């Protein structure tokens, strides 16, 4: 027969498949966000490089002027890319912090609800046990009272033996 400890353990630990599914979902969302961010960055880099190369190669300039323009554009593009990488890193960090904060809040709320449900279940079980014992005691007392009353009735109707 399962005891109170088993009941509490079942309520507190809950179904394991639900926690596994929740953790797998979190991992999939993190992988999806990571893939989207890296794809955007890669596309931006490739597009910028192709555009810059096309502009330089199609412009009619002398060799020295072209090299100077290429160097200047390289520095501008490099600065922009570093700025974009910093922005992407900052946004990624903000998103990660937000997800972490929301996960923590959700975990805390689930723990709070689980604790409340556990407490309520234990209270219901205790009240049920208390009421069951009360009914049992009432039945036993009523039976003993009835038994004593029947015995008194029988004794009052008993006639002494005459010899």
Automatic annotation (TrEMBL):
Regions that span the bilayer: 40-59
InterPro entries on file: Desiccation-related_membrane, YtxH
PANTHER family recorded: GENERAL STRESS PROTEIN
Keywords for this protein: Membrane, Transmembrane, Transmembrane helix
Protein's recorded name: YtxH domain-containing protein
Pfam families reported in the protein's UniProt record: YtxH
Superkingdom field: Bacteria
